[in-house]
Design a protein that fits this description.
By secondary structure, this protein is of the alpha+beta class. The protein has 5 helices and 8 strands, in the order ββββββααααββα. The strands form 4 sheets. It has a two-stranded antiparallel sheet. The protein has a two-stranded antiparallel sheet with strand order 2-5. The protein has a two-stranded antiparallel sheet with strand order 3-4. A hairpin with a 2-residue loop joins strand 7 and strand 8.
């Protein structure tokens, strides 16, 4: 059931009003055209979105804001969400919380959904003046990981979906703990 539609903001956030609905939600990014959607951290060039991005969250009525990016997509996939069609499992609020926490823990992050991401570059491809690598805030650390995944996309011939799929396949989730395989860890490091 579609609760609402909206647009993704410049920092990768998505906000919708779910009205009186409470429970698990799945957000899916639908790229409506083949035009430029974002500036790539690895190249500094404008790019079209070529991955099926998702996020999962828990709504408790009203407005819900989620980050939507490669890491939130991995969490959604690990919870059983699929981009096209019905999800493969019942996704409860507990499943959402465990999956988001597990993926965040695998990458050394505290919060996948609520942390405001500070990107390494701005919309023009120049260094982001708000990104200070000397003392990384939670948002800057999140931005650095996403920049690394952008580098992995480049290694994968620009195929963002390959990067997302390899991370999801290389991540083991046990309860609220996520563990990256050596191959998945190398994807992040080499990126």
């Amino acid at each position: 059931t579609v609760l609402a539609t909206g647009s993704v903001g410049a920092t990768g956030t998505f906000s919708i009003n779910v009205g009186a609905y409470t429970g698990a939600i799945i957000a899916k990014l639908v790229d409506s055209n083949s035009g430029v959607d974002f500036t790539d951290e690895a190249t500094g060039q404008a790019r079209d979105m070529t991955a099926n991005l998702m996020a999962i969250g828990v709504a408790s009525t009203g407005t819900v804001t989620l980050n939507i990016n490669a890491l939130t997509t991995v969490a959604a996939m690990k919870a059983g969400a699929v981009f096209a069609g019905a999800s493969t499992a019942t996704i409860t609020a507990d499943v959402v919380t465990l999956s988001n926490t597990a993926v965040a823990s695998a990458f050394g992050l505290a919060d996948l959904i609520g942390t405001v991401v500070v990107t390494t570059i701005d919309a023009t491809g120049a260094a982001n003046a708000n990104y200070t690598p000397d003392a990384l805030s939670a948002g800057e650390k999140y931005g650095a990981i996403l920049a690394s995944l952008s580098g992995a996309d480049l290694i994968n011939g620009g195929n963002m979906q390959t990067t997302v799929d390899s991370l999801a396949n290389g991540l083991t989730v046990t309860g609220s703990t996520g563990t990256l395989s050596t191959a998945a860890l190398n994807t992040v490091i080499l990126g």
